[in-house]
Amino acid sequence: MNQNMPVDVDPTALVAGLVTLLDVEQIDVDLFRGARQPGGEGRVFGGQVIAQALQAAQRSTDAPKVANSLHAYFMRPGDENHPIVFRVVRDFEGRSFATRRVIAMQRGKPILNMACSFQVPEEGFTHQDTMPDVPSPDTLTSEAALRRDMADRIPPEYHRVLLRPRPIDIRPVCPRSWIDPAPGDPVQAMWFRLVAPIGDDAALHRAVLAYASDMGLLGTGMIPHGVGWMNPRMQVASLDHALWLHEPFRADEWLLYAMRSPWAGHARGFNRGSVFTQDGRLVASVAQEGLIRQRD
Fold it and tell me: Which of 16, 18, 177, 248 could form a disulfide with 167, with the two C-beta atoms 3.0–4.6 Å apart?
C-alpha cells in the first residue's frame, strides 16, 4: 500500500489533478491562463506559480530547444480565489539559446517575474557533485504518514492543508517536527516522486520538478533557530527562486532533494538545493532566498 494516502484515494486521479493544474491554457499569442488549485484557500503555493510560468515559457518555444534554467522574483502573494494570467515576452531567439520573460498577473497586478533560458542540447565537458549517502526511499516513512500519526497535535486550522492527500510522495531522510522543531544544522534531504506515472512529456516532468523545488527549501534556513512556518510569530515567504535543469529525468521516479542553508540575516534566509536521480545523476540545482521574519 502507498504510504502517501488512505486506501480510498485514487493516486492516478491525484496526479491527473496536478497535471491539469500545471497545464496552462493559451488564450492569445504568448498569453496564457493558469488554473487555480481546486479547494485552495489563501495564498497560492509559490511552486505552482513557478511551474505554470515555466509551462507558459515552454509553450512559446519550439523544439529542439529545451529549458535549462529559470530565475523568478516573487512580488506579491497569489490569491487562490483567482486564476493567474501569464504574459510571455520573447526577448531573444538564437541558434543555440533562447530567452523568455514571463510576467504572472492577477487582477491587473504582477505577482511574479521570471526569466527562462532554453538551449539546443549539445555535447560538452562533464562533471558533477557526488550524491549524499542517504537511506533508500523504500526504508523511509512518507511525510503524509508522519502527518497522520501526529494529527491530534496539528492545530485544527491546519488540518485540511496538512492532512489532505497529495500527488507527490515525500519521504524525509531525517523527519522534523512541524509543531515544536528543535534547533539543528541547516541541512536536510528528502526523496520525492509523483504517486502515479504521467507519460513521457519531458516538458511536463520539468514543470513538476519546478513545482516540487519550492517544497522544503525555505524551511532549511529556519532549522538552526528552532522555528518553523507554523509558528504564529513567523512571517515566511519566498522572495526569489532559481532553478537550473542539467539532465533529463522523470518526476514519477524517485529523486533526492538535498538542501542546505549557508547564510541567514536581515530577516532573510538563503538556501541551496541539489536534485539527484536514484542512480546518482545530478539533474537539477536550486537556489532561493526567502523572508524569515520573526515578529514581536
Answer: 18
226-236 pLDDT, tens digit each:
998 888 899 99
Distance between CA 208 and CA 205 in Å, rounded?
A: 5
Catalytic residue positions, numbered: 214, 238, 288
What are the C-alpha distances in Å from 149 to residues 153, 180, 194, 209?
9, 15, 22, 27
Cα(272)–Cα(255) distance, integer angstroms: 16
In the DSSP assignment, the letter for residue 5 is S
Tens of pLDDT along 249-261? 999 999 999 999 9
Query: What's the grid cell of residue 278?
Result: 536514484
> Backbone phi, then psi, for 138, in 5-degree steps?
-65, -20
229 to 40, 79, 181, 192, 233: CA distances (angstroms): 18, 19, 10, 21, 9
Cβ atoms < 10 Å from Cβ of 137: 19
Give me the sign of the Cα torsion angle 224, 270, 168, 255.
Answer: negative
What does the DSSP 8-state code read for residue 70?
A: E
Residues in the chain, overall count: 296
- For 42, residues 6+ apart whose C-beta sits below 8 A from its C-beta are 80
CA 15 to CA 22: how far, in whole Å?
11
pTM above 0.85, yes or no: yes
